[in-house]
Amino acid sequence: MRAWLLLLGLMLLSGCVSQQQQTEFNPDGSGSYEIRIGFSQQMLDFAMMGNSGVSDDMLDDALVELGSIANGLPTEWQASSENWKSDDGKYRGTLIRMQFRDAAMLRDQLTSAELNELYSLVRFEAVEVVQDDQQVRILATVKNGENSMFDSQESADVLGAGLIASPTTSWTIRFPESIDSWSEREIASISEDKKTLTYEFPYPLTRDYQLEIVGTLSPAVPQWALWVVGGLVGVGLILVGIGFGLSRRKPTTSYQPYDLATAGPSTAPYPAASQTAPLAPPSYAPKPAEYQPSDSIAPYAPKPAEYQPSDSIAPYMPKPAEYQPSTSYEQPTSFGSTPAEYGGRTPTRSLGIWQDPNDQA
Description:
Elements: H1 3-14, E1 17-25, E2 31-40, H2 41-47, H3 56-67, E3 80-85, E4 91-100, H4 103-110, H5 113-119, E5 122-132, E6 135-144, H6 153-160, E7 168-174, E8 178-182, E9 188-190, E10 196-201, E11 209-216, H7 223-247, H8 260-263
Parallel strand pairs: 1-7
Antiparallel strand pairs: 1-2, 2-4, 3-4, 5-6, 6-11, 7-10, 8-11, 9-10
Helix pairs in contact: 1-3
């Protein structure tokens, strides 16, 4: 007998076994499926005492062999295994995690013979997983495991008498949006946000449980939103059609075509390049004689005597007394008139002399 079967039998006799299954959906319909098989840590410690024959090495071998089942599962399931310990530290065991891309793959995982023989507590039969747009409907029949050690009435009487503890098994389903309906409500509990549903199965099962769960992956688009989007698209198409029609409209009779003959230069074709006459080569024509430069320089002709500069400077001749500048600045009594004592002149010191304002500079 394999090590994990021996360990499982020992744990079942003591009732210290926990089987937890969890299915979680993503908004696109894919998700993950996990199975946790745990053994009571207290019973494991007790089992390794005395003459039970269970050692720590045997426990390690059993957990490794439990996890090795993941290696034989289909590759597209992306199955993996790891050691697992419950949050409260009461259970220790193995976690097997798988991925599913659609409803059909989840159905195959729930009905897998390898997985149903793993724990022998409960098994799923007649499983249907149907996705309709954003809704998923799960149908399943839950029965006692094929190798259950407590599937007889005698075993049920033993459990009922409290001689041994009862194993625990559960299935948790999570949807990203909501869980709309579910059956077998006497063994079910749902979270406050209506997204997580958990079934706690009594063990052994006294009857088969017919499960039906309906959940929503993501919120549906409201009907009014579809109408609004459709209306906007329709209006856009109408505007595009109107614009296209206007761009293709024929010109009216009042439109006068542009006359190139009267409104612009001649449109006569240019001669071909081969018919164009070549330019005449440049020729040098000498300038007339009167424009020729001369090397002769005219002789120097002195200026007449009256234009010659003189080194003599005329002696200073002071102005008469009546023309001497005055420190007083008197203005005309009226426009165009000056005091008589100035002879009709306005004194100014701009040039240091007397100057008539009407004199030209």
